[in-house]
Amino acid sequence: CKKRVLHRDERYYYVAQVGTLSSRRGRGLCPMVMKGVLERAGRDGTPVWLEASSEGSRRVYARCGFRDVEGGEGILLGKGECGMDGERKEKGEGVRCWPMVWWPE
Fold first, then answer.
1. Contacts 24+ apart (CB under 8 A), 5-8
2. Which domains does the chain have, with CATH numbers?
3. Which top-level group of life is the source organism from (predicted)?
């Protein structure tokens, strides 16, 4: 789905992982980290791509200005191969992720 959104030779930033200890959630830590990334991307005129790994992280990224790419339904990966936790599981449910993009103004 990235190819449908970003042009082949277009530069973009990719946020590989952001994690917060459950005891520290709800304090605005992710938006603080993302602020620096988005400021730089805005100066460069460069979009930012990520895949949210949960509904909660998807909401946080949306508040930071990211938009769903696949209409909000996300993508199911590994169906029949792994469980929702990503561990190998025969006939598993798979793992859902939500591709998102932030566009500079």
1. 5/49, 5/69, 5/99, 5/101, 6/47, 6/49, 6/101
2. 2-102 (3.40.630.30)
3. Eukaryota
